[in-house]
Specification:
about 180 residues, about 20% helix, about 30% strand, alpha+beta
């Protein structure tokens, strides 16, 4: 059995095993605390019956006017708990908060273009590529090349005209400085 619950500051000392994945972005403690203070309803942990953190999701609300949306900053599930539907459960919660609390037009996220497994999962959850952000991710090690990101979006109830969806988004390229 697993449950989604609000992330707490003390979880920062308990989630390291979840972050031990080369595709998971890691941040300094002040970054996590800033999100926890500003957007607590967007920061959740998934834990098992014994209290072990199996994954977490961290997001925020941002934008203006028709660009007002929920953003997935980080979503990760520990390797031992993958393929159990935990990511879907956490994404469902972030989407619920976007609709019910923040009244956003869409949810967006950035994913490495090489992360085909994650891209496939997001597509199954109803996300589509809105645009490709060239050189969004820095090379992991000195000398490694930068990597593009897909900006993937899913319209929420408020986006009745589906303005957050674009045909051929994979071919619509922008630079990181052009993304707000």
């Amino acid at each position: 059995m697993s449950s989604v619950r609000p992330f707490t500051a003390l979880d920062l000392f308990r989630f390291n095993a979840t972050n031990l994945d080369p595709l998971t972005e890691n941040y300094d403690i002040s970054f996590y605390l800033n999100y926890l203070a500003r957007w607590p309803t967007y920061f959740c942990a998934m834990e098992n019956a014994s209290g072990r953190i199996m994954g977490y999701i961290m997001g925020k609300a941002e934008g203006r006017s028709r660009e007002w949306h929920g953003h997935v900053t980080a979503l990760t599930v520990a390797p031992n708990y993958r393929r159990l539907g935990l990511a879907k459960t956490m994404m469902d919660e972030l989407e619920r908060v976007t609709d019910a609390v923040y009244k956003g037009y869409f949810v967006d996220l950035y994913v490495r273009v090489s992360n085909e497994i994650a891209i496939g999962m997001y597509e199954r959850l109803g996300y589509s590529v809105y645009r490709r952000v060239v050189d969004y991710y820095s090379g992991a090690k000195p000398g490694e090349t930068d990597e593009d990101a897909f900006d993937m979006r899913k319209p929420m109830k408020r986006d009745k005209k589906r303005g957050s969806v674009r045909e051929n988004g994979r071919n619509f390229r922008v630079r990181p400085e052009d993304v707000y």
